[in-house]
User: Fold this.
Amino acid sequence: MPSATSKQKPQTSSRARTSHDVVVVGGGPAGSILSGELARCGIDVLLLDRAEFPREKVCGDYVEPRGLRLLSMIGCLPELEERRLLPITHSATFINSECCYRGRIPFYGLTKDLPPHGYIISREILDHSLLRAAATAGARICEGTAVTSIRFGPKAVNIEARRNGRRLTFQSSIVIGADGVNSIVGRSAGILANDPRHIALSQRAYADGIDGEIGEAAFFFDKDFFPGYGWLFPMGAGRVNLGVGVLSETAQRLNIKVPELFKTFFATLKRSHHRYEKLRLCRPPIGGIVKTYGGAGANYFDRGLLIGDAGSFVDPMTGEGITPAMESALLAAPIISEALRQRRFDAASLAEYESAFRGYFDPSMIFVDFCAAMMRNRHFADSWLTAVRRGCEVAQKDLNFARTAGACFGGLEIEPANVIWEVWKNMATEMVMSSAKAAFGGMNFGSIEDLWQWQLSTWQSLLDDPIWHASWVLDLQKKWLRAWALMTKRTTDPRSVGLAQRVAKAQG
Assistant:
């Protein structure tokens, strides 16, 4: 594979060719990875992006070990590591500003084929590196080119765009939507997901002034932004990526303003935690949107596919989308190559894409989506925060519980049956202990009071909005049946193995 460490800016086509095998709209991780993979196979691929790179992108910037493995395989990681990135090896969890867990990330460093850490890599740097790698592999890059319309014809896809005031027209056999949550490709094909139950709203900023160079990712859970969380990720040299996210459905129903949520979060952060009291924003926060995997559709149509954020390839619990975006691109590449080989571009011929990504993501994402759906009901905020607090206390003492149950929030291998077993085992133990204390005159009723709180929250939810409550319960039942069907198959998590072999094969 040609080196991806070249410092030069990708050449922007000053004169676009009329026709290409594939046009990829969007130059983020998904679009660049796919373009590079196709180009290495000898496919004529054109990548269009409205921005000029490098450019800023709203994101938590967290690249976990599976993502680093992919970056290493395509040759980008050495260049990125030249920037002396701070390894993220530890995490801390705060409930209502109180630290309930602090220690090494329990599911990192368990296998030799994955780095024992993550990195916080700003999208300005990461995306530019991946775009250069795609250009080096042979993809044609058109920056500063905004797609304005897409028309699907019987013989080709016609794509109109504007660059520097000039109108441009491109044709291709296949068009790929890698252009984010408001994908013009997805809208043109009529399949863009838009379900507020699977959309998260966020505000993110960079800040300087953190005390110490510790690779600790901090997560903040609070009733104000439930279901959602705040984060603070150290980047080195005293800089952090910090932000807050909340479910779109919740924001709509309760009229929550995310910018105000961020202001409250930042003020509380500085006031409540000595280590963060000197933080100062580098520039005003900016907002973003993610669409999570629970709302993902088929993502294929006549003469096209959706990948990355456009296809809702985002973790439903954490909102992490960099690694899933790259994985979705690698899953799409062989489907596109085969379609070009057979010269068949109808939806039926591209349907294998859905089978591929469902087989890869479903074993873990469907269960995580069920967990996220359980937390959609704001009436249970206090109960869930109590449960998370108890889980953190157990995880601090029980490494197996931390690795298994904690994997639902950013873990590298999710085993639903084991997660359920660990949770129920600890619940049963706590109930027995609390009952014993009550029988002998103890004052801590623990789980008995918790069960009463869950029952009370259920009635409050039902009385407050019976129609919404019924739809929520029905949604939970549907998601549980999907998760249960997968668990009964004893399916392992394919994401734990990853797509490294596919990358190596493509590179020849």
